[in-house]
Amino acid sequence: MIRWRKGEVLSVRREWPGAIELQVSLPEGECRALAYPRLVGRPEPGDTVVLNTTALAMGLGTGGYAMVVAVPDRLPEDPQGPGHLVKARYTPLQATVLGADEQDSPFHDVLRDADSVDGMPVVVADLHSALPAILCGLYGSRPPGGEGASPPAGAPKVAYVMLDGGALPGWFSMSAARLREAGWLCGVVTTGQSFGGDVETVTVHTGLLAARHVLGADVAVVTQGPGNLGTGTRWGFSGVSAGEAVNAAAVLGGRPVAALRVSEGDLRERHIGVSHHSLTAYGRVALAPAQVVVPELPGGFGDRVREQAAVLAGRHELVRVPVDGLEEALRRSPVKLSTMGRGLDEDLAGFLASAAAGRHTASLLA
After folding, report:
1. pLDDT in tens, 136-183
2. Alpha-carbon gap, residue 192 to 244, rounded angstroms
3. Rounded to whole angstroms, how far apart are CA atoms 252 and 235?
4. For strand 66-70 and strand 158-163, is the pairing parallel, antiparallel, or unpaired?
5. Calpha distance 269→70 (Å, rounded)
6. Which domains does the chain possess?
7. Cα(207)–Cα(184) distance, integer angstroms
8. At 70, is the secondary structure helix, strand, or coil?
9. Res 270: pLDDT
């Protein structure tokens, strides 16, 4: 189940808030490794590190790192401060965090009886890669002033609510960190077993409530963390959580906006056009109605997307959104756009579909 290795840190390749990428020497050669300083301390060149190399050996794309489990000769100090929520529970790296909804939190009184997000739009997507594209569409649809990396003055505050279907550490997402630094996100809320956000919560429900009442968000974007799990079966994929997020948003008085997972570049037929992940999550799992954004893509491929999305009309409101100008907005993204290893030019339709959901969301705030 786990491939264990002992290695030596050669150099620090790069770092972003919460994570450090290392070059490590192993008996079989060199590799990239990732460390979370809040969990294992800060490895330095020359340190011996204990590694989990399972994902690396499997050749996984998003998670293709050796993961630093410990720096055995230089253990970090014991953590200080409150926090009784245990995440990654009953694993060797279970960690305690201060949950916004727990009794010791300064926000406990705010969340104890909170029962509504007050009509806040909640954009739900399957893949983590949709997050920056949604924001490009949302901010690109605002009044003049949003031409640079920063959103325009008076732009809505957007919180990212991270589900636990992909990566568990919020620190793994370089995109979320960079979007936070650029002011495109007012904060990251990690829910369920995920951790490492600006705000920690027990469930997606309290995550949405915290986005609204703790971070003061005008909009929440909900996706799983980087990476996702799929088995090629109708129900065996982590993105079913998108349908459950629609239900959570609706029961809390939010306005669910469903972003379709669309691809023109995927080699797998089940993901060409509208992915079966979206059709299952929104068509079968989501019991509450949402506004499903159907991008007005050109040509025969656009016709295919509209035809496939039509099966969702019995439960949801289909909203056709033009995509003119959205490619330009996507090219101004402050972070690199990539989905399943494909960049903007390799799968433009997929990013346009996500950006269209952001554009529609902006119209709800007008």
Report:
1. 999 986 543 444 456 767 789 999 999 999 999 999 999 999 999 999
2. 13
3. 26
4. unpaired
5. 42
6. 4-70 (2.40.50.140), 108-365 (3.40.50)
7. 19
8. strand
9. 76
